[in-house]
Each structure stands twice: as C-alpha cells, then as structure tokens.
Amino acid sequence: MRVLAAMSGGVDSAVAAARAVAAGHEVVGVHLALSAKPGTLRTGARGCCTVEDAHDARRAADVLGIPFYVWDFAERFTEEVIEDFVAEYAAGRTPNPCLRCNEKIKFEALLDKAVALGFDAVCTGHYAQLSVVDGRPELRRSVDEGKDQSYVLASLTSDQLRHAMFPLGDTVKEQVRAEAEQRGLSVADKPDSHDICFIPDGDTRGFLSDRLGERDGLLVDDETGAVLGRHTGVHGFTVGQRKGLGIDAPAGDGRPRYVLALEPVSGTVRVGAAEKLAVTGITATHPVVPVMWHGPVECVAQVRAHGGTAPAVAELIGDEVLVSLREPLRGVAPGQAVVLYRPDQAGDLVLGSATIATTR
C-alpha cells in the first residue's frame, strides 16, 4: 500500500512510520505545520507545532530513507481547532482540542489530501488497536492502557478508519522507546507532549482572556443563591473546577466549593458542594457510530481522555445518545465527548461517541 505517515517529530509517530516501512509499504513522511508563527512557540516545547519538531521529523525520515514533506495546515487548524476551542469556552462548554484535531485535521483535511494524491492510508503514532471484521473497521483500546488514545479517535467515521493505520496499538510505550533506539532514531528519549500545542505556556485562562476579553459575571452559591464574588468571564471556568475560583470566604460547613454550572448568557458561575457534581445521566448529540447497535446496550462510558469511566446503558435515539450511568461520575461537562466501549477479550471495542449536551 501507499502510506502517508504523519510525523509530528515525536518518538511515537517516528516508530509508527518505521513499522509501516518494515511492513513493506511505500511510505512518505509528512509533518503538519499547524502554527502560523512557529518561531513564536517556546524552544523545546513538548507539543507538535515547533520548528524543532519539524526538524526532528525530517531527521527521522532520513534515517528511515523515506521522502519527507512539510504541509502547511495552519489556516485550517486555526479555523477548525483554535477558533472552535475559543467559541466552545465562550458558550460555557469544555472542548477537547486533541479530539477535534484528529477529527478535522489528521483524518479529514490530511486524509482527504492523501486519498486525492493516491495514498491508501494515513499512518499515525496513536495508541489504539484497529482491525477489520466482516468488512467493517473496529477501533479498540491500546494494549498500553496508560497511553490509550482511543478516546480521542472515537469521533472518526467508519470510512476514515478504513484509511487509518495505528501500528503502535499492540505495544507499550517502553517498547516503543527501545525500538526507536535500536533503529537509530534520535527522538528515542524525547519527552512526550503534554501541553495543548497552541497554548505552549499552559495558561489556558490567559489564552482565552486575550481572545475573549473580560466578560464580568457573578459567582453564585447554587443552594442559597448568595453572591460569593465576581469574575471576568465564564471562559475561565469548567465544571468540576475547585482551584482558582476567587472566593475568599469558605463555605458555611468548611468544605470546598466546586463549579457546578456555567451560564454564559447571564455570566453566572454556580458553585456548590462536591456531591452536587455527581451525574447519573447524559444526553449527547452528534453521534458517530462505527459499530452498529440497536436498542439499549450495556457498555462502559468514558467522559475524559484519561479516566472518568463508569458502567452504563446507552440508547441511540435519532441524533441523540441517552446514557444512564450505573455509577455516578463527577465533573462531567457539556462539550466533552462521551465514548462508549464494549469490553471483550480483544480489547475494549469502541461502540461510538457523541458530544455531551446536558447532564442530570
């Protein structure tokens, strides 16, 4: 097959490309330039948008002996990921930019271009297992549960998955680093990326304030309605947040307060006790269902990229997914994705995903 290897400049994508070469595929490496001003990002940033990352990807391609290109997707990334991120926070929701990037950049914009150029698949260094059963692709958790990235890939459609390759799904991270060293790849010891790539200093609140400005509002006790303080924008908060609320006086019972709800129209941030964060039901929209299922289905629901799982019963009704949690989850925020898994011996199978609209 002709394979386009997306090479971020990290160890995972380099080893994934190496495995595609070793499997006998005709491989071409490509690095996505996602920042309009890559020189402004901090040197050595643990992201995937710096000039240094592009150089690392090129060196890895040279070692593998494959052609290498840099494709400028900065404008598309700004529109589909950064502007969406800002708009979601302004609306009082909590987005996942990595999920959005996979959906709109790596497996829509990049894949569309790859297919148009005659490539059969896009190869990435994501930790997830992918197989084809009865002609349909099935996405499962990685063998390395600690690195599993099936959650941020769960919004991919069946057609996108048919053109995807995840060579690292059967491997744990330590083995990947050892293999990189054996292959002579200089990124073998490169740290993993942890930051949102377009917020390299990690100051999400500051990033949003620069773009949205100050939108004054009130911090209100959810139980009594008492005004506890003021803030400069609901975009500085997310459901489940405890620190940085700006409330001087402790609660009457001495327990900490958490963000319970955001009301962007009125600018109100409602806070209260931890037990009020417990969610037993979720209504989600814009479902993506790569595996067909009907009626209520027993599954495991996950609401965050790492953690936030509970046994559940889910039902697909029109363009909504109704999820009843058998165990309550805390800090479930509108805008997040809920991903549904069916445990099996081959690894937890992704049944589908949807965007959380409301909770109960």
UniProtKB/TrEMBL annotation:
Q: Where does it live in the cell?
A: Cytoplasm
Q: Which reaction does it catalyse?
A: S-sulfanyl-L-cysteinyl-[protein] + uridine(34) in tRNA + AH2 + ATP = 2-thiouridine(34) in tRNA + L-cysteinyl-[protein] + A + AMP + diphosphate + H(+)
The UniProt keywords, alphabetically, are: ATP-binding, Cytoplasm, Disulfide bond, Nucleotide-binding, RNA-binding, Transferase, tRNA processing, tRNA-binding
**EC numbers on record:** 2.8.1.13
Primary place of residence? cytoplasm
Q: Can you cite an annotated GO cellular component? A: cytoplasm
Q: Which domain of life is it from?
A: Bacteria
Give the positions the UniProt entry annotates as the active site: C101, C197
Q: Which GO terms describe its biological process?
A: tRNA wobble position uridine thiolation
Q: Where is the tRNA-specific 2-thiouridylase MnmA-like central domain?
A: 206-272
Q: Which PANTHER family match?
A: MITOCHONDRIAL TRNA-SPECIFIC 2-THIOURIDYLASE 1 (PTHR11933:SF5), TRNA 5-METHYLAMINOMETHYL-2-THIOURIDYLATE -METHYLTRANSFERASE (PTHR11933)
- Protein name (record): tRNA-specific 2-thiouridylase MnmA
User: What would be the name of the gene that encodes this protein?
Assistant: mnmA
